[in-house]
Design brief:
Rossmann fold; alpha/beta; 8 helices; about 250 residues; 7 strands
């Protein structure tokens, strides 16, 4: 039997990178998947590229009305949910001396507020015994110049996993954080505000800091998320699983 046979999973930030790879892996393991993201065209292309039960719902996690619409569709189509991968995130480079209020607000609106209400609004649909996985980052324990707001937002995500583990224990809903290191996805070039040349230089620098000597693959992150989702990880809750090639250990 497949690991996620018959389970209903919701993935935010599901149109590319880690979210896309995880959606594919979940479907391969038998799940019925709902993905959401801000880019309609990319979202629809992603859904069409996956062979299986995938529903695409355009939305921005920082807009609470979009979250309400997402979960209304989940309820109408599936009636409940078993797994939430709260993966949507944002991070642009801005040194402390140059950071603006808009930069700070956008980072926290998506990574903290958006994730908080993504989970809160999912709870009425959750079956007891479900699994919630939050995307944090290796930055939550590292000092990363130019990304201090991003790192702080991801440290908040780490704490959410700890607190919600205790809040949801009576429903046997497990909450874990997953912290990727530098991953080879389009995000470094498309969401950080770096030029292509700067993104290439940053990728090389990140890889040099990883003991394994390379950036990770989105499929490797998807494998870790898939480990945390089903019953085989039933005694794991409240952890921050580092999937970073050893970067946080050195």
């Amino acid at each position: 039997m497949k690991k996620l046979e018959g389970r209903v999973a919701v993935i935010t930030g599901g149109s590319s990178g880690i979210g896309l790879a995880t959606a594919r892996r979940f479907v391969e393991e038998g799940a019925r998947v709902v993905i959401t993201g801000r880019r309609e065209k990319a979202l629809q292309e992603t859904a069409a590229s996956i062979q299986g039960d995938v529903t695409a719902v355009r939305g921005d996690v920082s807009r609470l009305e979009d979250l309400d619409r997402l979960y209304a569709i989940v309820k109408e189509k599936h009636g409940h949910m078993d797994i939430l991968f709260a993966n949507a995130g944002a991070g642009t480079i801005a040194p402390l001396a140059a950071a603006t209020e808009a930069h700070f607000d956008q980072t926290f609106d998506v990574n903290v507020k958006g994730l908080f209400f993504t989970v809160q609004k999912a709870l009425p649909l959750f079956k007891d015994g479900g699994s919630i996985i939050l995307t944090s980052s290796v930055a939550n324990v590292l000092g990363v110049p130019g990304f201090s707001a991003y790192a702080a937002s991801k440290a908040a995500v780490r704490n959410f996993a700890r607190a919600w583990t205790l809040e949801l224990k009576d429903r046997n809903i497990r909450v874990n954080a997953m912290s990727p290191g530098p991953i080879d996805t389009p995000a470094l070039a498309t969401t950080t505000g770096l030029t292509p040349e700067q993104a290439e230089q940053a990728a090389a620098q990140f890889a040099s800091q990883v003991p394994m000597g390379r950036r990770g693959k989105a499929e490797e992150i998807a494998a870790a998320v898939t480990f945390l989702a089903p019953d085989e990880s039933s005694y794991i809750t409240g952890v921050d699983l580092a999937v970073d090639g050893g970067m946080a250990q050195v």
